[in-house]
Amino acid sequence: MQRRHATLVEVAKHAGVSLATASRVLNGSTRQVGEQLRRRVIDSARELGYLANASAQTLARNTSTLVGLVVHDISDPYFSSIAAGVTRVAEEQGLVVVLGTTSREADRESALVSTLRSHRARAVVLAGSRTAHSEETDRLAAEIEAFRAQGGRVALVSQATLDADTVVPGNYSGAQSLALRLAELGHRRFAVLGGAPHLLTATDRIAGFRDGLTQAGVSLPDRAIVPGAFTRDGGYRATRELLAAGTNATCLFAVNDVMATGALAALREAGVRVPQDMSVAGFDDIPTVRDITPQLTTVRLPLERMGEQAARLALTDGPAKEPRVVHVEGDVVVRASTAAPPPN
Asked: What fold is seen in the domain 171-301?
């Protein structure tokens, strides 16, 4: 049989205080209660096994202990690593993280922020690429403004295109550095798995990679860029498409690591040896790429630290007159998936 939890009325009677006083203590009212009375109420609640009403606490405080975390795809280690950092900071402050996933649907992102606003979440962290679609961006901007007008705080891990504190990954600079390193290995013919064209993360990384190659005296024609979903299966299908069309590329760059893992599978099925026949590189340095064979050359972003930084912007730093932007640069990590190109 389940144990019956005490009511607020029973706690007040046990502590010898009014119902209003017990409510102020246990439901988080901003009205002050003397320390002696407060201690009596807390001791009675503990003795009777009282569970506080979360909805009542939210109304009393005009906020809650909830922190919203909105990501594109929690199965993607990029987002799960960021989520670990956000959760760590929230738990340090005794807060609870509520997760929402968008499946990379921009309207879903706006809807989740609206839902979190209705639950009076204390803060929201949005992790994921911004989009080139202005209507979707405008809808999200309106939801963020409404959330902040209610007293909530917002931080993002993405491009700094919205009026909110943002942790900005070094997408352009990291891809540029990677291109230079791959050109130093001797590669002159490249193909790129470019992700979805409307995602700014993809376009930033392609632009940086292309400019790095230009600095090395190498051109990257548009036909060498194959679009695809930002997923393992998207990378697999894009690589199959690339191989079916025929390519003379000696090095394949996928704009994120999960696409690169799909590319490796497609190349293996086609009998293309990595890196003997074709080198492969990715971006992000998600934990799994260190365990695949061959280990993936990539651009390392400090993903958990990025999540921590975004959470601290939303939860611990004081409000700022202007949005704060924290730039996080990546480091090129060369592993076994890349080598000098095969002889002609």
From this structure: Rossmann fold (3.40.50)
